[in-house]
Amino acid sequence: MAEADYGDTSGWDKFEILYEKDENGNNDTSKPIPNTEYFNKYFRPYLSPLKITYGKSSVLVYFQDGSMFSFGPMSMIFFPDAKNYEKNVDENGNIITEKSKNDRGKTSFTFYFNPTTNTSSNKYHYGKGIEPYKAGWDGTEEKLRNDNSVGCKESVNNERAYCTALIQMNGWKIPKDYPIRF
Question: What is the pTM assigned to this prediction?
Fold first, then answer.
């Protein structure tokens, strides 16, 4: 619906990562904050959420069915059960990195939105809407399963972001040989 109002996503405003300012007025790149202006322009008018709140670095969208979507600065995380998001943050709203990393591909799934950047590492996102995370993907199932940083395997350096693309590749069904056990 936003494309009907604003045209093809490749022509939308570039999504900017926003940061808290340090004492000198410079961006503190260790402290991203939600880009609420972008979210409110391109997404909010087209959603029917139960509620919208704001985390440390994300816009949190809760839906009637109990699911939740975290619209963050680098990716978007979908939680089929919003309670699993709450298990991944501390009392200050900060993501507990190790817990969150271990839950990706199991209780939460990574998506990405970057329609205006036309690079080889972003070719599966350029000109598209919200898609399963495929940044840097070479188009092979092997890479989705075995990438050491974001592959859909038990142990990764970053998070299991490619699990969502693996499920999409299988017709939105979890494959019988899915590498993450529930």
Answer: 0.86
